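Note to self: keep these together.
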Amino acid sequence: MDVAEVRTTTKTTKCENKHMKIHKYVGCDVHKVDSDLVIAEEGREGEVRPYGKIASDLHAFERLIKKIGGPDVVLHFVYEAGPTGFVLCRHLRHLGHDCIVVAPTKIPQPKGGRQKTNRRDATQLARLLRAGELEGIYVPDVIDEALRDLTRVRSDASRDLKRAKQRLKAFLLRHGYHYAGSANWDQKYHRYLRELTLPLPTLKLALEEYLLAMEEANNRLTRIEEVVAAEAVKWRMYPAVQALMCFRGFDLPAATMLVAELCDVRRFAHPRGLMAYLGLIPQEDSTGDTRTLGSITKRGNAQARWILIEAVQHCGKAPKIGRRLAVRQDGQPEEYRKIAWKAQTRLYKRHWHLTQRGLLAAKVKVALARELCGFVWDLLRRVPPPAQPKIKAPVSRSATRRPGLSRSEHVMIG
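Structure:
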């Protein structure tokens, strides 16, 4: 090879190296106040070096990107799902960088490790991300997460009302009062409580406080349900909510809650994946020829699992299309109504067989919820995918910062 060919080859190699991208994998152990970062260079033998701590706000991560990034650098971020939510992930993706959020239960853990620190956690995340051993969870957009939070407020209000009723009944039971009729909280039962004669004025005051707390919880629940109904109609996932209302046991609040928790079920290739996501599959500890199944895993989305278990309370009754269900199914495609009717008949037969076997009522409900999960997966996959939401670009934080507050105090992730 002569000198001219050597020079040409050298120039070509330099040009190729010039346009090569450098990948950096950043493991983040994110907390409320600060975050520990570890950067892993690409390649199996690449350097893994601690970067240090930075403040847990968006401006600090923007400054970090300017320091370690560049035109030929591709950054990959990863952090564990936790109380800080998805604000950081969405912001990094908006800036054009790759970022995933991983479930702590799905991170491979080395056996024998007896030391756990923030830096070690960040180092492990960076190494596993570089090796391709991590799988990110679904990150909802801002609008979907906002409606999900609203439905969770409704669930909290429902539980508060239930607790208020339990406290009132416990108060009456402690003092020897028992209602002879059906205590279904109708007008007759409320009249009985108002006209109840107690021996001491102090007890009457306590009763009035319990009644007032129950009334306030009931008014709050009604108010939130009205807001959920108004916002659900404007939501891009409302067709999926309408389709889910074809099932018996799903009114507008329940259907909105389940769709807000699941979002797009197309990310599950099989209904078993959705069942595992909701924690409805049994635990298994098998070895050799021995197979041992335990209780359900209860992992994943507990809110959606609770909704499904509540929705199967009617399965012991004969299948029928009642007046309210007929109104909800009016105008829906025929295939949606066929799936809903198939689910009714299937769950009714399944309930009868499991009950005849003598299983506990709680186990029967969980088994029926798992069956219903498969029908929900089949139905929601038939709904046309919604259009992507048009979200405005986030406003510069420095322009909206109030005087007297630092940037870290104004836009903390936690």
